[in-house]
Amino acid sequence: MGLSFPNIFRLGVKELWSLARDPMMLVLIAYTFTVSIYVAATAMPESLHRAAIAIVDEDASPLSARITESFYLPRFTTPQRVTAAQGDRGLDRGDYTFVLAIPAGFQRDVLAGRSPAIQLNVDATRMSQAFTGSGYIQQIIGGEVNTFVNRYRAETVLPVELAMRLRFNPNLDQSWFGSLMEIINNVTMLSIILTGAALIREREHGTIEHLLAMPVTPAEIMLAKIWSMGLVVLLAAGVSLTVIVQGVLRVPVQGSVSLFMLAAALHLFATTCMGIFLATLARSMPQFGMLLVLVLLPLQMLSGGATPRESMPQFVQHIMLVAPTTHFVSAGQAILFRGAGLAVVWPQLLAITVIGLVLFAASLGSFRRTVAQTT
């Protein structure tokens, strides 16, 4: 193609200076790889954690006290003893997620075999905690009542003993998965946004015509945007992985950080080309934003990060094989979660490279047509 690498380097430095003078983009980069990572790791866990519970104990018996003491951290907060009216007001104000009402004579009826009822009021606006917590509370109450009636804690003897070993995340800590997957998703999102916005900004400001008047080719302009914006995202991802994930959140990384950064660099080559391609289709920043919605949501939802690919329909699995995010998520999970090496993830790295080359050819052709229309 007759490329001039000094031109590519100088044009890339120009892109970096242009980015440094854009405070909104700098804030977006900082937020995406700091606060966004922390929030994704700690907010709204799937498991029950510190659910607020209150108990209306009208029985005041040893059995009701035993049930009250069975709710403790980390799944539940310390139960608050309230009256029926206080429990209703607490649910209305959102102070409690669960209010358990134990009626008078509950222990007497249990011992007499009358199967008394306990009322459980749930704030269903807190959907994840309400759904999971109701099942936990039912199991806890059933276990405590059976233990009290039988005078011992019964154990079910199964014909086969299941020896369960949890690998890579022994405590099933949601923050481990959430933080690392958020980095993977943000690398894709930010690389597309930065490269596409850089091209549209130049076209709106008229600087693309100035560049074309210089002895540079469209390929050099495009490569300059790819390496400069890709370098910014790669450095931000590396700092976030080291400082936020491993430092602040204390999430252990099983595999090689260097190998993950190599996979991220290859992925950035593909996604920055995708950003340039989308920018050539859009005529303004609002149009580019609409295209991002149509592209980013399928890439993040169907790549295997939010939902395992095995649970998707077969045709969706096959279609998403042409997306670089599918292979990057697979490689990132294997490296960061399971400690996989190059011998395991090389097929994914090869697929990302091939897809990146195809996207580069497509975006370069579209960029040349856009330049020809401009001139």
Structure description:
The chain is mainly alpha-helical and 375 residues long. It folds into 2 domains: 5-43 and 172-374, no CATH class; 53-150, abc type-2 transporter like domain (abc type-2 transporter like fold). Helices cover 65% and strands 4% of the residues. Strands 2-1-3-4 form a 4-stranded mixed β-sheet, with helices on both faces. α4 links the parallel β1 and β2. The longest helix has 33 residues, at 342-374. The two termini are 21 Å apart. The mean pLDDT is 86.
* Low-pLDDT stretches: none
How many strand elements? 4
What is the average per-residue confidence, as pLDDT, rounded to a whole number? 86
Shape: elongated
Q: What oligomeric assembly is this protein in?
A: single chain
Largest sheet: 4 strands, mixed
Q: Based on helices, strands and strand pairing, what is the structural class?
A: mainly alpha
How are helices and strands ordered from N to C? Answer: HHHEHEHEHEHHHHHHHHH
Return the domain count: 2
Alpha carbon gap, first and last residue: 21 Å
Strand content: under 5%
Helix content: 55-70%
Q: Evaluate the radius of gyration.
A: 28 Å
Number of helices: 15
Write the topology of this structure:
Elements: H1 5-20, H2 23-32, H3 35-42, E1 53-57, H4 62-69, E2 80-81, H5 84-93, E3 98-102, H6 106-111, E4 119-122, H7 127-150, H8 174-205, H9 207-212, H10 218-248, H11 257-281, H12 285-301, H13 314-319, H14 324-336, H15 342-374
Parallel strand pairs: 1-2, 1-3
Antiparallel strand pairs: 3-4
Helix pairs in contact: 1-10, 3-8, 8-10, 8-11, 8-12, 8-14, 10-11, 11-14, 11-15, 14-15
